[in-house]
Amino acid sequence: MIFGGVDLAAEARRTGIAEVSDDGELALQNVSVGTDDEELVDLIHRSVKTGLDVPLGWPDSFIRLVAEHAAGEMLAPISTDASWRRTMAMRATDLAVRDRTGIVPLSVSTDKIAYPALRWAGVEARLRAEDTDVARDGSGRICEVYPAATLECWSLPSRGYKGKQNTALRVDIITQLTGVFPTLNWNGHQDICASDDNALDAVLAALVTYLVHQGLAVPPPPEANEIVLREGWIWLPETDAPSG
Length: 244
Known about the structure:
Strand order of the largest sheet: 3-2-1-4-5
Low-confidence stretches: none
Mean pLDDT: 96
Protein name: DUF429 domain-containing protein
Distance between the termini: 20 Å
Largest sheet: 5 strands, mixed
Number of domains: 1
Structural class: alpha/beta
Order of helices and strands: EEEHEHHHHEHHHHH
InterPro entries: DUF429 (IPR007362)
């Protein structure tokens, strides 16, 4: 079985992908950076499930705001202060991640993460037209993941590991991941993960996707079942400590 991981950027040249196989041994089969839409779709087709580091949807409240504003039907709020604006910035899953890890995900409504989210919306439409199950709650062929929050769950360095200047910290993360997945065969892919954070995030995405398939990640609560079908749900590891 193949589990895919994608660190989705707006542009192909910065998009990382990884494949983890589980055929009696957990092993990395491919890690690369520079992934166009065709390669992304192919990975999703070939994988049991693919984890995507990108917001799969927008906050319901933001969608309503844009629709009502476009139609000239928006009612005036009591105030336009920061507390009101924040209600359009965060999805239900973003708040859940913040509450568990202390990490606040970038807002798909207001931050640059919207650019890769727009790219994903186009790819999702293509897959949906092909009858691929791309349910945003993670019940189908894809799930949303967040590598930095995953690292925080495992008490591994979750900040400051991005960029060319932080190779040493990525090497440390790779070494410590052995405690989480002691049987993982890296197949020589440590070097690309150390040199490129997009590659490391793709590997983390694939590993979390494996945990999702194994029932070892946290699903959305029942009361959020409807909203996460629109907004998406970030799957995090079930435990806060290395599981072996």
